[in-house]
Amino acid sequence: MVRPRIIVTRKLPEPVEARLKALFTVAFNPSDEPFGKQKLIKAMTRADGILCAFGDNIDAEVLQAGGARKAQILANFGVGTNHIDLEAAEELGVVVTNTPGVLNDATADLAMALILASTRRMWMHENRLRRGEWQGFDLTSGLGCSLRDKVLGVVGMGRIGTALAMRAHFGFGMKVIYFNRSKVFAAAVPKAESVDSIEELMAQADVISLHVPGDAENRHLINAERLAMMKPTAHLVNTARGDVVDETALIEALQKGAIAGAGLDVFEHEPAVPEALKALDNVTLLPHIGSATLETRIAMGMRAVDNLQAHFSDQVPPHQVV
Ligand code: DGY
Known about the structure:
The protein is α/β, with parallel strands linked by helices and 322 residues long. The chain folds into two domains: 5-102 and 294-311, Rossmann fold, CATH 3.40.50; 104-285, Rossmann fold (3-Layer(aba) Sandwich), CATH 3.40.50.720. It is built from twelve helices and twelve strands. It has helices spanning 14-23, 37-46, 60-64, 86-92, 104-119, 122-130, 159-172, 198-204, 224-227, 247-256, 275-278, 294-311, and strands spanning 5-8, 25-27, 49-53, 73-77, 95-97, 151-155, 175-179, 193-194, 207-210, 235-238, 261-264, 283-285. It has a seven-stranded parallel β-sheet with strand order 8-7-6-9-10-11-12, with helices on both faces. Strands 2-1-3-4-5 form a five-stranded parallel β-sheet, sandwiched between helices. Helix 1 (14-23) packs parallel to helix 12 (294-311) and helix 5 (104-119) crosses helix 7 (159-172). The chain is elongated, with a radius of gyration of 21 Å. The mean pLDDT is 97. Bound molecules: (2R)-2,3-dihydroxypropanoic acid. The site of (2R)-2,3-dihydroxypropanoic acid has 7 residues, from loops.
């Protein structure tokens, strides 16, 4: 039997590449250089399936591939699929899968790390130390704020939001409130309270953490108006998608000291990070590493391979999005 041909757009952890090689005829990307549009189109015309990732902009034009598309499935390495035009994929009958579940802990850990970094002003302190400006131990300069009894506002209490809320509540003594688009959801976190509007959450929380998908409905969910509702002592953390926050409005709020700080793992126009953000010492900036542990990346890759394997065995992939 002819083995399905898979094109992989990014370098993968070694055990994942080994498993793919055992199952399919595979073209890997050892240089890890991201595919541009033309290369993605070409891949669509040559492969039976593509293993892709965030950063591959798979729009309707790529999916159509000039009418010469061969690929039946896009197995995304990651849970977010905002870089794929899902509507066009569904219309064209291209299966799209993702890798939910296995990255909850790693991403929640990183959100917690950003909460600690922001509330303890770690970036500012580290930067001063590295610049040789530390004069020795003192009692009153650059104090942060404690988390115990503070309010964590989770926007999007799904799998990752819940994992963060558990850490914040049980590990750090925070009270948790949350806002969800869908009201049918009851949080698994003890004493977590649902609020009726995002405005309520913005006004009440001491730390706000975003865990919503990067879809059109959530674009600039956190805008100038909502940022202005935050307490001046509050912190904003984003490990979801960059465009959930109006970056220009956030920069202005941080520059004016209208909010105390922010921790960002994602940006509106990745990999570009505005110089104005880099110049601020009340924001911690990380390069989209929410799921970047070796264990998690292997588990994500294996999930993507499970999806491909199911599809090419005429089964419904376990994590089919469309
Ligand atoms: C995800 O899984 O969505 C991560 O952000 C990486 O794409």
